[in-house]
Amino acid sequence: QVTKDKKEFNIHLDSSVSAKHGENGSTMAGFDIQNVGKQLAYVVRGETKFKNLRKNKTTVGGSVTFLGENIATGVKLEDQIALGKRFVLVGSTGTMRSQGDSAYGANLEVRLREAD
C-alpha cells in the first residue's frame, strides 16, 4: 500500500511465505515495511508451529526490526492445549529487546467452543 499527498508519502508492505512440514508442522517467514513517523521500519519475522501431541500445538517465533539506527529483536512462545472437545487453554509469552532495554509479556486464556 502506497499513499502520497502534497506533504506526506507513506508505504506499507506485508509479505510472507509458509511451508507445511507433513501433518504436524509448518513454518512461516515474513518481511514488512512501514512508516514510523518520518522513518521506515523494516521487520523480518518467522515462526514455526508444530503438534507435540494430538491435543497440543506449540508455536515458536522471532522477529528483528530495523528502525533507523536502532535494532529491536523479539521472541515468542505459545502453547495450546485442548481440554476435551470444547475447551482450549492457550498460554503465550514473549520478550522484545532494543538498546539494552527489554519488555516482557505473557497471556493466558481459556476458549470455549460452540457445541456444534
From TrEMBL:
<dbReference type="Pfam" id="PF11886">
    <property type="entry name" value="TOC159_MAD"/>
</dbReference>
<dbReference type="InterPro" id="IPR024283">
    <property type="entry name" value="TOC159_MAD"/>
</dbReference>
<protein>
    <submittedName>
        <fullName>Translocase of chloroplast 159, chloroplastic-like</fullName>
    </submittedName>
</protein>
<feature type="domain" description="Translocase of chloroplast 159/132 membrane anchor">
    <location>
        <begin position="1"/>
        <end position="116"/>
    </location>
</feature>
